[in-house]
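Ticket opened by: R.M.
Priority: normal
Category: complex prediction / small molecule

The reporter submitted a protein together with guanosine-5'-triphosphate and asked that the result be attached to this ticket for the collaborator who will pick it up next week. Submitted input follows.
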Amino acid sequence: MEENVKEKAIIVAVNDTTDEIFNYELQELVALCEACQMEVIDEVVQNLTTFNNATYIGSGKMAELKKLKDTYAINTIVFLDELTPAQNRNLSEYLQVEVIDRTMLILEIFAKRARTKEAILQVEIAKLKYMLPRLAGSYQDMSRLGGTSSGAGGVLRGSGETKLETDRRHIEKRITKAQKELALIVKGRKNARKKRLDNKAKIVAFVGYTNAGKSSTINTLLSMYASQNNKEVYVEDMLFATLDTSTRAIKLDTNEEILITDTVGFVSNLPHHLIESFKSTLEEIKEASLIVHVVDASSPSAALQIDTTNQVLSSLGVSNIPMLYLLNKNDLVKNTIFLPKVNGDKIIISNKTKEGFLKLVSYMKEKLFPDLVRVKLLIPFDKGEIFNILKTKANIHTFNYQNDGILVDVSMSNYLYNLYKSLII
Ligand SMILES: Nc1nc2c(ncn2[C@@H]2O[C@H](COP(=O)(O)OP(=O)(O)OP(=O)(O)O)[C@@H](O)[C@H]2O)c(=O)[nH]1
Ligand SMILES: [Mg+2]
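Result attached by the on-call engineer:
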């Protein structure tokens, strides 16, 4: 992305779970740091069954961490678990370096990626709400807010209660202002959406864990069925490549149009302020006739990622919409026994080999346009215009010229069926 200067980071975690889950969480934290333009120099792990209330890790680990930080000139130390305001304050005071937790890291990534006014406001609100109870904490946190009157560097440190109150009021004001601005944008979006619904357009929403391949799958579909002016969506091997919901149209060979919506990826323990803020964007999922849940079938954590995604979906209240699982990246799966188990309809695909895409399209067709009827028509030669209409509005499987007209085997909508049923043989 735009900045190439990488911050140097150390990640710190207390292992209180099984090694399998823990290793995955660590690996994901490294990927999250990379998505935030941070290079992870070292990992510090402590095996503990409970966290230290005051400092999250024990004093021995604290000393080790401080040494590492000085040796490698570390800019930021990232903690796997959400820190309490007190832990955050104690750690940054002792370590004398910026301390953030996974939640803040995710908020940071979103802030870096946000491009549209809507996304920028959504992230700002989430960040401010996260910061509010942590105001008494370190000065570093404030610098991450950007644009506050409090600004960066030590302003808050040692500040008295009055200053704190001023800051709090200031932030509350900013939240209210951002929420008002956002409400206006959401209203505009709702109108656009209403128009689409009036058009009776069929919407398919692509959802899934971050990096599962939602955007890639949409691009493959676009390359197969692009209507004119269809810009590809953004794809990157990076967590949270997509932040803004975007919609593209594809036209099937039966001439039906489908609107395909790409959405922000999910991650386990997604900060709840973020889900709240992004609800207006994710509202689009509610209008979908079909939800396509894209899974990275090659990931050893696929089951966990599927659960996370389903949890977010149920918190959005969209469990009543039919869902199809797309087990993606099958080119990387050595054996079908390694494919994740899912509860419901599924299709195995790969954006590398393009396997499964014809199945996907016929699945969407059946789900979205179940009223297509397949018939044989004999079109008299003096009604040749009907043949032309069918060519553009229906799906002609075969046709041949007979003595008394053109014999066509065709799938078409109920509307066309009623128009031409007198020609059925
Ligand atoms: N080998 C393989 N790689 C794939 C496949 N599909 C997608 N990828 C890669 O996976 C990475 C993520 O793909 P995206 O399409 O950006 O994933 P996404 O789900 O949109 O991710 P976010 O927008 O970050 O939530 C990219 O590097 C893709 O090239 C596939 O079928 N096989
Ligand atoms: Mg994407």
